[in-house]
Amino acid sequence: VQQIVFISPGRVTAETAADPAIESPTQAIVRPLAIATCDLDVALLHGRVPMQGPFPLGHEGVFEVVDVGEDVRGHARGDVVAVPYHVSCGGCPPCRHGRTAGCTGHGGADTGLLAGQCYGLARGAQNWGGFLADRVRVPFADHMLVPIPAGVEPVTVASASDNIADGWRTVAAPLAAEPGAPVLVVGGSPSIGLYAAAIAVALGSEHVAYVDDDPDRLQRAALLGVHPVDGLPKRLGPYPVTVDAGAQPERLALALRSTAPGGTCTSIGIYYAPTELPLLDMFLADITFRTGMAHSRTVMPDVLDLVATGRLHPEIVTQRVVGWDDAVAALGSVTGKLVITGPAPSAAAA
Ligand SMILES: [Zn+2]
Ligand SMILES: [Zn+2]
After folding, report:
1. Which spans in 185-295 are helix H?
2. Is the per-residue pLDDT at 112 higher than 60?
3. CA geometry: angle at 30 spanning 116 and 19, to 5°?
4. pLDDT tens digits, one per residue of 173-218
5. How far apart are the C-alpha atoms of 188 and 253, rounded to whole Å?
6. Distance (Å, rounded) from C-alpha 235 to C-alpha 244?
7. Which listed ligand is nearest to 98 at the C-alpha?
8. What is the mean pLDDT of the chain?
9. 105 alpha carbon to ligand 2 midpoint, in Å?
10. How far apart are CA 41 and CA 125, in angstroms?
11. CA dist., res. 144 & res. 16, Å (int)
């Protein structure tokens, strides 16, 4: 297999490794059609994530099924599918409750982001490889492979595996509880905040504001039908639904200060250091705060359906699309959502 490996910040390399093979009758082998960088990959490549290379990179993508084990019933060679970033079995208690990122049925010892069950990240990449490979092995294939609806281009939904699903979970449940509620997204990470804001518009929020200090993201927000707010004030709103997509303590504080009494604030941020929360203010205003990994497998069908209806346009968030042969150079200078199209079938290993 040809794969792209993260070495250290700013440095990736292409290398050849052993071809992944079907090791159990419920597994599948897939080949990439479109792979995206996660916001975490961008942070990793810029040296802001405490993970040591080398490991195979990539955990967002759309694939074509090239082989299935004999017990796989729901998928066949040629199917076009998205694969979630996190391995899950579909049958254990957390999976049955929709908490697929907490799967305990995968056979590994631990659960969680850094525990070895995510493609393309740290220990998980040692176990499962990364999506930036011309062949990828997928366990629990009937559960893990999510069909792409007819008419949806792989390049458009390459981030459905993780970042678009991550945006979805910040607004879908609060808007289901309070239909039409105004939403504030505090941006900062390359794509998740924009996806969250665009999904809030698509799900019927009466007013969606996106606050950030990045001109490129503010421009994309406007194209997504979102009200852009330039700069980082101390407080906005208040809004019944807020999102911290900044992953910086001061942006988290802005989201929390802007949450209306009784409202919900969801953070997609990964805070590696202890971070202050204004718990007294939150208590007095009855604010619900949510954090944690996205259970993307559970929401991916809804995300893909929303794109298929034409109400959500993730391609507006994408900064750059490059071919497979340009992937290494593009990753070395990545600043936002990068989508890499797969190698031609004839060029891939048989
Ligand atoms: Zn990710
Ligand atoms: Zn499970």
Report:
1. 192-202, 215-223, 249-257, 279-284
2. no
3. 70
4. 999 999 999 999 999 999 999 999 999 999 999 999 999 999 999 9
5. 13
6. 13
7. 2
8. 94
9. 4
10. 13
11. 26
